[in-house]
Amino acid sequence: MALTSVIIPSRRIPHTASGLGDSGEGWAPVMSEIRKKLDHVKFVLPNAPIRPVTVNVNRIIRDEIDSGIPSNRIVIGGFSQGAATSLVIGLTSEYPLAGMMVLSGYLPLKDKIFNMTTESNKGIPVLICHGDIDEVVPYEGGKQTHELLKTKGYSVNFKTYPGMGHSSTPEEFNDMIQFLNQVIPDL
């Protein structure tokens, strides 16, 4: 089964960077607002099926590269399980990516993942955002992911949102915009 995506085109043609995320239908309104501050970014938000999506997301990365976007102008990210998937893809990708955004997520395969990582993304900037009262993915899971990546030499920034559960806030959106402007600045 093919993976469907919600595409939010850049406000400027052609786009010079791409942001890949998960749950297109749920995040499209948020990313449409964020896009207003990032005219040069096209957002590709795949609608993740129940089954593993690693192959499909790698295909989306290749499609963006084939369209002329250098891999170091592509950011991947996700929310919850999508964040976990983004971490696995980002850490194991053969393509050097611009960054990863991990929203209310965690690092799966903790015992195996660092046997699978590539040198391509050893220095990749990672933004981890987590609410301190997350009832689905415990806050400690986000903190542990941050600490583990940091001990392995990754450039990780951990943001805590007091009083936020398994959701998002305008403050988190502002942090996402700031991160995206840092890792994929307008050309």
From TrEMBL:
<protein>
    <recommendedName>
        <fullName>Acyl-protein thioesterase 1</fullName>
        <ecNumber>3.1.2.22</ecNumber>
    </recommendedName>
</protein>
<dbReference type="InterPro" id="IPR003140">
    <property type="entry name" value="PLipase/COase/thioEstase"/>
</dbReference>
<dbReference type="InterPro" id="IPR050565">
    <property type="entry name" value="LYPA1-2/EST-like"/>
</dbReference>
<keyword id="KW-0378">Hydrolase</keyword>
<feature type="domain" description="Phospholipase/carboxylesterase/thioesterase">
    <location>
        <begin position="57"/>
        <end position="183"/>
    </location>
</feature>
<comment type="function">
    <text>Hydrolyzes fatty acids from S-acylated cysteine residues in proteins with a strong preference for palmitoylated G-alpha proteins over other acyl substrates. Mediates the deacylation of G-alpha proteins such as GPA1 in vivo, but has weak or no activity toward palmitoylated Ras proteins. Has weak lysophospholipase activity in vitro; however such activity may not exist in vivo.</text>
</comment>
<dbReference type="GO" id="GO:0008474">
    <property type="term" value="F:palmitoyl-(protein) hydrolase activity"/>
</dbReference>
<dbReference type="GO" id="GO:0052689">
    <property type="term" value="F:carboxylic ester hydrolase activity"/>
</dbReference>
<dbReference type="Pfam" id="PF02230">
    <property type="entry name" value="Abhydrolase_2"/>
</dbReference>
<dbReference type="GO" id="GO:0005737">
    <property type="term" value="C:cytoplasm"/>
</dbReference>
<dbReference type="InterPro" id="IPR029058">
    <property type="entry name" value="AB_hydrolase_fold"/>
</dbReference>
<comment type="similarity">
    <text>Belongs to the AB hydrolase superfamily. AB hydrolase 2 family.</text>
</comment>
